Amino acid sequence: MQTTETPAAGTTRQTHGFQAEVRELLKLMIHSLYSHREIFLRELISNASDACDRLRFLAIGESALLGDDPELGIRIDADPKAGTVTITDNGIGMTREEAVANLGTIARSGTAEFFRSLPGDEQKASQLIGQFGVGFYSAFIVSERVEVRTRRAGAPPEAGMRWESRADGEFTVENVTLPKRGTAVTLYLKEDAREFADALRLRGLIRRYSDHIGFPVRMAKEGEATLDYEVVNQARALWTLPRTQISDEEYRQFYQYLAHDFSDPLAWSHNKVEGKREYTSLLYLPARAPFDLYQRDTVRGLKLYVRRVFIMDDAEQFLPLYLRFVKGVVDSSDLPLNVSRELLQQEPEVEAIRSGLTKRVLDLLARLAKDEPEKYAAFWKEFGAVLKEGIAQDQANEAALLPLLRFASTSQADNTPVVSLADYLARMKPGQERIYYVIAESLDAARAHPAIERLKERGLEVLLLSERIDEWVMGQLEAYEGKRFKDASRGDLDLGPLASEADKARHDAELKESKGLLKRIKDALGERVTEVRVSDRLKDSPALLVLGEHDLGDRLRRILTAAGQKVPEVKPILEVNVTHPLVTYLDGVAEAGEFGELAQLLYEQAQLAEGAALANPPDFVLRLNRLLVRLAAARGQDT
Hints:
Layout: E1 6-7, E2 14-17, H1 20-32, H2 39-61, E3 74-79, E4 84-89, H3 96-104, H4 111-117, H5 122-132, H6 139-142, E5 143-151, E6 160-165, E7 170-177, E8 182-189, H7 199-209, E9 217-220, E10 229-231, H8 248-259, E11 267-273, E12 279-285, E13 302-306, E14 309-315, E15 327-332, H9 341-346, H10 348-371, H11 373-393, H12 398-401, E16 408-409, H13 421-426, E17 434-439, H14 443-447, H15 453-457, E18 463-465, H16 470-474, E19 479-480, E20 483-487, H17 501-513, H18 515-525, E21 531-534, E22 543-546, H19 554-562, E23 573-576, H20 581-587, H21 592-609, H22 617-638
Parallel strand pairs: 3-9, 13-15, 17-18, 17-20, 21-23
Antiparallel strand pairs: 1-7, 2-7, 3-4, 4-8, 5-6, 5-8, 6-7, 9-10, 11-12, 12-15, 13-14, 16-18, 19-20, 22-23
Helix pairs in contact: 1-5, 10-11, 21-22
């Protein structure tokens, strides 16, 4: 570990500006995380541990990197008089270029948008920052000045580097000669943070937040004026211990270290597999979604170890994309130590572990849904839209995923905000053969959708969907427990045994009486629609556009078009409520031009009701205004 430094000859001191997102993060942390100040130590020790992990991995193929200092570890030094704390490791270290890049920027996509979304409220802002992770910059929560001295393993002493900043928008770097590799971070504490220079306070924080670090964290022996250091933490990787030896609090603390999160996890699963293959996994369900959950290029995956040796932070091959919110560790006894991302793609052992871990997560979610429904409801609110992706991505696990889905519904039974498919089946009417659902731009629009008016009148429950992914997901589903899914806005409504003889007789009578009107509307609309027919769906609305069972919906068409894909033209069916006053008025209009305008208004009104965009809104407004003027004139004549 580092001890002293001397300026390197022929080097100049340079000043750099922080990346804009870093400046914003520093400002928010300094002012919003006062109640979480002690987490700076957890974050800096975590960074030090990662540096040791990386060196241990590289040293497998290049043992000379360890030199004459093979025992990796972390040291904490406190000086109450000077008000400083120094965290030193003898890990991989950094070059000057790496320090400028790693300590001056945040290499995560979407950070600018994330910081713009943070509210002014400090408590809410601190929770959102927790979703982002604070890392090295947490040092400025308690420090007025931070100094970093670092030298890359394998580099000569004169390649050392000193980085310094006061969180004022700038940092300076200069080359110095350092006798040993690794990194030392010295915090010059603020006046109101001098408590963290107390050795007893630091020991307590180390045991609380970093007891599970797989490297020894050392401090000078208590009560002795000596240079002898003793190990403060257990220095045993948590996942390697039997479950019976780990408390719930230790599990929670390890999650916070692993995920850089302030909050506790919702649940976790710790398992050791032995036999044909051997691996240990510790998987967590977070309580909150990270800000970049929907950015496909974001860093994700489990922390991978092979026989306790750290390999990589974000091994995404061990869980499918729809489980990208899971945090955790997988430690294999069978994979080679020199495994790379490319080799992971081809390694048959990985697919077996992936299958096992996926089942573990789905089992954990099933237990949470059954035993702790309130917690599962909180999980669904944060991650439900992502879990739905699994329906299309992972057909092998569809049977396990379907019971985990939750839906808004027209039923308010049990006052539950969302319902499961099992809930729906339990409330089905005798003779009901279909699970009815409708998709709209919002839950309110789905609840008021014209296509479900008659279903609601009959007391039939309808699932309400409004997320971007829903049309894609529901297109993959056929049935649940033998009951087929039915989009209420597509094809024939098909009530099956629920349709009475009286219903059929009413439909036949309406069709017979309105054949002429339906033909006139079809002639007026021309190629806009494939057919105009009497509706069995409508009760309060005059008209509805209905797609074929396999036609692309307007929402999915817009998404595909925006992505540059060509989509086939779709001509809907116009269903008409022939008992509605507007339709009966239309039936009495003899003048062809007026009839055509009213028919087009009926069609455009149906478009608006389903959330579609009109081709020519100004033209629609002109037609509507002409109708209102005629109605006003007719009313004036009547009076």
